[in-house]
Structures
1.
Amino acid sequence: MPRNEPTEGTESWDGEGSARRRKAARYAVPVAVGVVAAATIGLVPAFAGSGSPDLPKISAQDLIAKMAKSDVQQLSGTVKVTTDLGLPSLPGGAGAFGGGQGGGGGSAAPQSKLMELASGTHTLRVASDGPEKQRVSILDKAAEYSLVHNGNEVWGYDSGSNTAFHHTAPGNAAHGKRQAPEEVPPGLKNATPQDLAQRALQAAGDTTSVTVDGTAKVAGRDAYQLLIKPKQSASTVGSIRVAVDAEKGVPLKFTLTPKSGGAAAVDVGYTSVDFAKPAASTFSFTPPKGAKVVDGGAADAKAHRPHGKGGAASEGMKAPEGMKAAQDMSGMNVLGKGWTSIATVKGEGSGLPSGKDKSKGAAGGPAAFLDSIGDTVHGSFGSGKVFSTRLVNALVTDKGTLYVGAVDKQALIDAANAAK
């Protein structure tokens, strides 16, 4: 059958056309917004409507090509994000990654909002006008957090604490260019269906099956549904479904379902979308009267000083946790390929402390809690603890080496055995 001939929606695309995949990886609207992976979401009520539209048949290859050709630079809309990774709760009721109250400090720094999107349902308002103007607002019941990128400036504002975060990237006078700000963390850039679909398609290859699986109505627009399934049995990912706007070629919804079944682990989608140019005022920001303003540039410079001397910015701002984590992960290696890639980090010391260590307190303290949520495993590598979510599993050996990936427990043990 000719390659470009329309086919039934179940035609498989198993990694053919690497050039098209490379193009597809560039289609996403550059909306500097949160999630997740990330991340990185309960949209069924929002998308209930007139059912599946009757659209012309299209092959997976042609649908991906349509996405690659899409050059939508301007849009605004509302996105609902629901994440159910099955993360354990820490003592005191906080989530495993800090809970949903901004860490309790009311910080307006973008990094402080990353972990809030790791669980629960959130509503975002997004707007984009090309690569230099984006805005996202995370709406909460009692407060709103806004992140505004305009040229070489980034503002973050938390209405709950009336705190603003500001960063200006230095210009390059010699070449008449401005540097792009680095204060928008990757996790906050990857919470739209476009960004998440891009990352999923980058993994497409001989380890992946891609098909067109029917149509859908999303945010009032007709869409094709692209179904992505790993072929590697050790992957914890069951399937990824991407609803692609039939006219614009822009992903409108992204749903990741674990192999274990149940509710989606990540579900991100527009409930309303408008492809008109947003008003210029959308990307303007002036701190409200009385707002506490933290200079992000000063924070970054001090955070990189040796031994943390002067590492706190004005008003006592500390180096972002994400930055610390990135420094700790500097020795990371990746084993395997495709959906069963495993990241490994050789730690220092002798691994996790045991809950039996009475020096941690009568109840064992944090060590006892780690023992309670992890499963002890053994292999030729020695012993260790496996910590599991619905999507990502991690093995920490007694020698301090970390193995983590969207793979099952046995794949982690096999990797540790092979690397001993």
2.
Amino acid sequence: MKAKSKTIPEPISKTRLRLWLRLLKLSAGIEAELRRRLRDGHDTTLPRFDVLAALSRHPDGLKMSDLSGYLKVSNGNVTGIVDRLTEEGLALRVAIPGDRRAQLARLTPKGKQAFDTLAEHHEAWVDELLGGLSLDEAETLSRLLEKARTEDDAA
């Protein structure tokens, strides 16, 4: 008679590590595809799209320092992008009364229109790239990821 071999269950840390690697692979793949589509189809970049999106969410404008903090990038990176957007008539800088050093960046109507077009494409691309998930699966995964984030934030 054969002796039954007992398998030692894998520690949950290994399962979570594999999950993290899968999330990274998925995220990197989606980001690379979005970058490619923005570049090839719209002659723009993901950082530029992110600046347009942030300014779109703040129609009254954002201080340049707040914009860089919001996007978690350096002031220099944001300044270069906003400079180019301004040159193209998509954004403008407005002086802040009483603060000679600070400026607000905001979208022009042309910038808002350009962003709205990009945002429609971006949403459709993400929908396509995650099209293997049903509505229920996407909602469940979203809830689980939020739960993981919340538990991490609590620690």
3.
Amino acid sequence: MTTPARFLCSDAARLRGDPIAGTAPYGSVWILIEYRGGWPFNGFDGLDLDPGIKARVNSAARAMRARVVLIRRPGRARPDEQPRWAVLRYEEGGSHSQHWGAWDDDSDLAGIVTALDAPGERGRPPVLLVCTHGLHDTCCALRGRPVARALSEGWPQLVWECTHVGGDRFAANVVVAPDGVYYGNLDALSAVRVVEEHLSDRIHPDHLRGYTGLTPPQQAALSAVLHHAGPSGRHDYFIERTVRDDDRWRVRVTGRLAGLSTFEVEVHAQRARAHQLTCRALSPSSAVYYEVTSLHVA
């Protein structure tokens, strides 16, 4: 008797050709908490920490619409170093800041609440977050861990494994924070190439899920511009105008630099057929994707 193959959501999504552009969740503030033990299914919320501290951190995070993720170094226990926490913030106009601290006791995490109201330090290199949260989704571990290892060989000080960041079916997922750039459908080789280019301020559209400061239709429009005009820097284009008409959008994408054009992009939202979208999903569900129906130079 043949044993059925194990279902993997990332394999299924690749076979279906699920569109990747326009799938980055919103977020401009990141709270990172290094935790070297096992990660619960629900991440920070599932940790056995002081309930009052957890409540304070969660309340402050909700107020800022911040995403809380657990982090750890790939394959490194680092028993002689204190676990760290960080608040990373991306601001309008492209500036960003980081505030790092350390914790031995649960009460030390209260520093996160204070840091959310502090300016932070500017000029630090970005953090590379690789989702490897296997208890949340099998694909994140199977595809994420090789990517984390490969990236840590080149950028050991920048790379962290992390808990769920969304879009399990696009594993391996890499988030550059606080830049707010999501990449997906990566393997070890493509991840190294994508990060090399990103750190050289050349963003390619092939693995780009989107910028977290933009809406999904805007993300899809910008991705289409990069496909048409070629890779560009994180802030070389901006969204000048977005007009919605029911399930269609007209997005004006404008280049900031000399030689870059302005584009008018039309985007149409469509709902795909229902599928099992994650490894642990109990029933099929349908995702909305954003199809670019026209693009021309304004």
4.
Amino acid sequence: MGEIERASDRGDDPDADLVRRIGQGDGQAAGTLVARKLPRLKALGARLLGDPQEAEDIAQEVFLRVWRHAAGWTPGAARFDTWMHRVALNLCYDRLRRRREAPLPEGWDAPDDRAGPDAGIETAGEQDRIAAALAALPDRQREAIVLTYYQELRNAEAAALMGIHVEALESLLSRGRRALRARLTEAGPNGDRR
């Protein structure tokens, strides 16, 4: 299993001072951390869960845990950002497990498909095709792609969060990219099957 990257291996943790201040009850530091981390945590949750509202719930729970545990944080063991991502991933996994265990109720509505932060880059149709192709991937491949491409984590960080070696992550990425390419090519530019 991969070890979570030590902050000392990368230099100082950029969030260490904020976390220390949050541990002392500084609400302004908490607001700064939320402003800095909220968009990425919501994007992670939305990509893994496919539901922006659930992603907001996940992010809120992460920040509640930050507030509760900041006073006990030990700098140098791991980057604080890595710990936050791990908490968010675990909360997403819990929700995904619950979904598999409970059937959807009758009359269930699909998640909100409004454009995300990358809307300026891709058209709505392309976003839908990519989201559908991403959702069709096996969980671990989807997780590897979301962490490296959407969360912009380095391979070592993503592997540590997933609890695997970098080589295993790279294998998941390779298989995931091939599957995405095949699915997107198969669907054609308008989403029509060729």
